[in-house]
Amino acid sequence: MRNPLLRPRALVAAGAAAALALTAAACGDSGESDADITWWHIQNQDPLMSTWQEFADDFGAEHDVTFDVQPIENQAFKDRMGTASQSGDVPDIFHTWGGGVLAEQVEAGLVQDLTGKLDCIDQINPIALEPYTIDGKLYGMPFDAGVVGFWYNMDLFAEAGIDAPPATWDEFLADVQALKDAGIAPIALAGADQWPGHYYWTYLAMRTVGLDGLEAAAEAGDFSGDGFVQAGQMVADLAALEPFQPGFESATYGEADGQSAVMGEGLAAMELMGQWAPQAQRDNSGTDGPENLGFFPFPTVEGGVGTTTEWLGGGNGYAVAADAPDEALDFLCYFMEPENYSRAITEGNLTPVAVDTAAVAPDLNEDTQKVVDALATATGTQLYLDQAYPPAIGGVINEATEGLILGQLTPDDFVSMVNEAWAAEE
Amino acid sequence: MKVTTRRARLLRHTGFYIAAFVTTAFVATPILFALLGGFKDNQQLRENALGLPSPWNTQNYTDVLASGAFWQQVFSSVFIALITTFIVVACSAMVAFVFARYAFRGREGLFTLFAAGMMFPFAVAVLPLFIILRTFELLNSPLGVILPQAAFGLPLTIIILRTFFRSIPAEVEEAATIDGAGPWLFFSRILLPMARPVLATVSVLALVGSWNSFLLPLVVLQKSTWWTLPLGVTQFSGQYASDTAKVLAFVMLAMLPALVFYAFAERHLISGLTSGGTKG
Amino acid sequence: MTTTESPRVSPGRPDRREGKSPRKRSGRPGAGTLATFIAPGLVLFLLFVILPVLFAAYVAFFRWNGLGGVPTDFVGLENFRNLLQDEVFLGDLWRLGLIVVLSLLVQLPISFGLAMLLHQRFPGRTAFRLLFFVPYVLTEAVTAVLFRLVFSPRRGFADSLLANLGVDSQVGWLSDREIVMFVIFGILTWKFFGFHMILFLAGRQNIPDELYEAAAIDGATGAQAFRSITLPLMGPTVRMIVFLSVIGTVQLFDLVYVLTGGGPFHASETLAITMYEQGFQRNQIGYASALSIAMFLISLVFALFYQRFVLNRDLQGSITTAGNRS
């Protein structure tokens, strides 16, 4: 009854065979992917997950290259990109939001300068290239751009007797209370992921000190101003109303009980989220999403200089590794070919970045249209802070916002944590 | 105990069984949840989390089994575990042999050095290991997982093997020497075959250690080419975060090899752990 | 590290005889032969065990983001000073203590009790023994994925079970900062009680039956025999298990990292998770190295203290399976 594997002779034989294989593996290529092009993206839900795979397969067949396509959940992607950057070896094509995170990867020599290398770049609206442009050079190709705002379930709002979305922070708090009184969870939030929470603090800071104030603070690495403390206090005040769905503290954005599924199932009245939210609500909940989904800008704060036409936002794009084969660049343009790109827009309800939107997306879906309109009338935009700033600082802002929301940090703690992170970065 | 009456024994046994079955329920429930959950669809999981699947839905399991990623991860896990085991047992046996049978200056010092290795929690070393592996360009390579794992397996294996080698009577060695066998012959032809049971035990320990390893592969293997099962499961659960039934099926299938192995190697596993844990 | 053997732990093992030591006869292998035997293991060990630990000790005195090059920004003890003011680190220590105390008070007594139970002869005990050990053979990371689903809100198995029993669970298993550590402790118990039970069982089986027979002849009751034979003779096993349990808890990572990532807001963070986050996500390699060294010192001080005052002679092969929790 003995397992043959356990006999020493068998073990030695197995070991010897394995050692041979190992030598082969080690000499052949020390763990480089067998595929010609590795592609990490965060479209880990159908329909786009399959669409992206098809793009890769079709392109691969046409150009005789092989792909290793990795759909990775957003948060896991950020973790893995962190380690990959440390290791000095990033995938040939990888998702990027631009900003300070991309800048740090560029500084480490990991990212390819795309300036003048992409023939298709003139199809893209130049404004959308901004987050990916560092010192005048282009390091990423956007495929979607939009804004963060409140997506709300109009039926639940009506049930709580709210006729119009709130325009000011005080109205907003009153509406939250009204929803609570009606027995509805006002806000869905993925507490464990941290980044959805940081939208609140960022927007409140944008509304109190304005975009210029935010820029000046980042320039000086000093967030001690009253407006920032006030923003933190307002986050804490909101959290004190207990507006979030039960169990939000450990919820992630995309899982079956996560933020977007809770919205999709109509179990919470609103979420502060980017242009991808309606699609994610359907994908993650496996439902058709709320029947009447509305969108309103983050409310203004009394006495603050920010306006509702200033948006927090950003887009999704792809960067190319410094040592990637040229086919990777060709693939990006293949991706942007009108036929493919318009398919992506239609299936995934992306917000297009094309110069000629009508050509690639003749009739946008209603939700996407709202984001496009918001962008069209925007008087200013701010990239997500956790991407705009270097990763160490973005990470601290995310973490500190979680601390504020859970009542573990005071607004003053928040400010000093962020200041310390900037000081350490110098 | 001989004086217990039948009735007392019955009572006692009833108590045993109650305790045993309560513990069984505690142990088995989560595993059954995974097993049965994999046969449900998400609708059923939502509405009927506790009951038997109805209808039984095999698609989650067949989907996982049909995916190349799963088999690639099984292969990587097996491959890495086998080579780690081979390296750690081979190296340890040679070192332990010398420590056990020959005296030389610095022997005790060297042995203490190895033994002290058990004081280093693996997590302590993972960060500098990462940087060292980066320097050697062993990141994203199976060797980057195998070599550190093998190195950290050395102390325990050496101690167990040394104890065993010391127990072999000197007469055996003398007889071999008279027959003209040098240390290599004695070691490979006589000592190793005699050590079979204990080699099996340390091999099982090394296999299990490598199979369960998570932190090292997590930082070493970013590209999926060599992902092991533990990495695969966590990644899968992120990728299919909203498809709970499928994640349960994957979890169950990932647990299966360990369960099968346990069923076959239970004796070695337990003797290894108890000798490691209580005796050395 | 003592190499003293305990006759009480493994009484009557026939092969315990000291092997023939130093040979001074002909056929004594030369230094070269000995070196070839030792070299592969030694090189591996120096390169991947000793070097990293020394390297961590060095880097701990620098501020370094680890992105290429070598550390140059020497900061002395600053990383260690910051560590002692870091509430997350202090919290890690507090949670380490909590898990250790709970293990000693709850998990080990349960394992001990079950071991005593399974030492009795009754039909089916082998099956139970095999079954109870099953969680231990499952990979921690995989277990964590499973339990994340068990404890997920609303749809999780735990809430469904309670709902079926008529309890509308409002428990935030993994989301309530006050509760999450106890849930983790429950999962650790699920995972490790079988292992401890097996060790206890082995220790119990090493006590010769003659002792009990003699006690019975002297008229001792079962309880008396338990108190004066079982408990004292199980001492070495108990002490060993406590040791393994503590050293294992110091490096706790896989299970908690996959289950909660250390959240909500550090409420379930462990030393190893803080180290990982600082080192790999925040690029604070110097600070994370200081944390590694702190973990090492905690293990070391505990091991030395424990060996000196508690284990004395009955520790051999000592730290051994400590790695089983990492």
Automatic annotation (TrEMBL), chain A:
Q: Which keywords appear in this protein's UniProt record, sorted alphabetically?
A: Signal
Which range is the signal sequence, renumbered to this chain?
Answer: 1-26
> What's one Pfam family here?
SBP_bac_1
Which SUPFAM superfamilies does UniProt cross-reference here? Periplasmic binding protein-like II
Q: Which residues form a coiled coil?
A: none
Highest taxon in the source lineage: Bacteria
Recorded protein name is: Extracellular solute-binding protein
Q: Which organism is it from?
A: Glycomyces artemisiae
TrEMBL record, chain B:
List the PROSITE patterns hit by this protein, alphabetically.
ABC_TM1
Question: What SUPFAM superfamilies does the entry give?
Answer: MetI-like (SSF161098)
Q: How does it sit in the membrane?
A: Multi-pass membrane protein
Q: Which residues cross the membrane?
A: 16-39, 74-99, 111-133, 145-165, 198-221, 247-265
Subcellular localization(s) per the UniProt record: Cell membrane
Keyword line? Cell membrane, Membrane, Transmembrane, Transmembrane helix, Transport
GO CC terms for this protein? plasma membrane
Q: What does the entry give for GO biological process? A: transmembrane transport
Query: What protein family is recorded?
Result: Belongs to the binding-protein-dependent transport system permease family.
Question: What's the protein called, per UniProt?
Answer: Raffinose/stachyose/melibiose transport system permease protein
UniProtKB/TrEMBL annotation, chain C:
**Residue ranges of the region described as Disordered:** 1-29
**SUPFAM superfamilies, alphabetically?**
MetI-like
Give its localization.
Cell membrane
| Gene Ontology annotations for the cellular component aspect, listed alphabetically | plasma membrane
Superkingdom of the source?
Answer: Bacteria
Q: Which Gene Ontology BP terms does the record give?
A: transmembrane transport
Where are its TM segments located?
Answer: 33-61, 93-118, 130-151, 179-202, 241-265, 285-306
- Keywords associated with the record: Cell membrane, Membrane, Transmembrane, Transmembrane helix, Transport
Domain ABC transmembrane type-1 stretches = 93-306
Membrane topology (UniProt) = Multi-pass membrane protein
Q: Does the keyword Transmembrane helix apply?
A: yes
State the InterPro entries in the record: MetI-like, MetI-like_sf, UgpAE/MalFG_permease
Classify the main location. membrane
Membership in a protein family: Belongs to the binding-protein-dependent transport system permease family.
UniProt-recorded name of the protein: Raffinose/stachyose/melibiose transport system permease protein
Q: What lineage, starting at the top, does this entry show?
A: Bacteria, Bacillati, Actinomycetota, Actinomycetes, Glycomycetales
